[in-house]
Design brief:
Layout lengths: L6 E4 L5 H12 L3 E6 L3 H5 L6 E4 L7 H10 L5 E6 L14 H22 L3 E10 L12 H21 L5 E7 L8 H4 L3 H9 L9 H12 L10 E4 L6
Parallel strand pairs: 1-2, 1-4, 2-3, 4-5, 5-6, 6-7
Helix pairs in contact: 1-8, 3-4, 4-5
């Protein structure tokens, strides 16, 4: 197994894309720790995980608390996947200052400090994979704050790759498009018109599945991607071409 002996952390790994990533890394042989915010039952159902820790992001000290809990299970980490995020936001007119602060705290500040606090535990030759979004490169004013956080995350990826390169650590972003997860369920599932429209936005003509993203992450986590760093890997199925 390509990740045998590796230890991975997947934030927001109890459902959706994060769950698919955790399960794929586990199938590849990694010992996987996941974080969850509230749904302990969902976290317990993730197949192949080694342990789960509760971690609520968006508060000062959240990253330090996460790693303290992680340390009770593992003494180091090889792969960090920053997946936990607030999935949507309002448009410019409807966005409150509190909403703005929250989405940036969870989607940008938390990954920043998860990495900073994790570097002393991350072994040389490790992997950092940030889950971004196709919305960072496609204008979507209806979710302007969310899109902006993902653009910031991609810039974070670029700078980290340069800083950590001497340690053999690769840093990349994966940018999904519309994916059939719980976050999109209320408007996508059971709505044939919405599903058809979402599928039409991708060159490959369908809505993405969590496993589509997990497979890309698994590649970047493996030694096969040892010469790829500082990149945003588009995983939208060709949206916006």
């Amino acid at each position: 197994m390509v990740l045998a002996g590796k230890i991975a952390l997947v934030t927001g790994g109890s459902r959706g894309i994060g769950r698919a990533i955790a399960e794929r890394l586990a199938r590849d042989g990694a010992t996987v720790g996941i974080t969850y915010a509230r749904d302990e039952a969902a976290a317990a159902e993730v197949e192949g995980k080694a342990f789960a820790v509760r971690a609520e992001f968006g508060r000062h000290g959240d990253a330090a608390a996460l790693w303290e809990a992680f340390d009770a299970h593992a003494g180091h980490v090889d792969i960090i996947v920053n997946n936990a995020a607030i999935g949507r936001s309002s448009d410019l007119a409807g966005l409150t200052e509190d909403d703005f602060d929250e989405v940036f705290a969870v989607n940008v500040r938390a990954p920043f400090f998860v990495v900073r606090e994790g570097l002393k535990r991350l072994r040389d030759g490790g992997r950092i994979i940030n889950i971004s979004s196709g919305a960072a490169r496609i204008a979507m004013p209806e979710i302007i704050a969310y899109s902006s956080t993902k653009g910031a995350l991609d810039t974070f990826t670029l700078n980290l790759a340069k800083e950590l390169g001497p340690r053999g650590i690769t840093v990349n972003s994966v940018a999904p498009g519309i994916v059939d997860t719980d976050v999109n369920a209320n408007w996508l599932r059971g709505n044939a018109e919405a599903e058809a429209h979402a599928a039409s936005l991708a060159a490959l003509g369908r809505v993405g599945q969590p496993e589509d993203i997990a497979d890309v992450v698994a590649f970047l986590a493996s030694d096969n991607a040892r010469w790829v760093t500082g990149r945003v890997v588009d995983a939208t199925g060709g949206a916006g071409l």
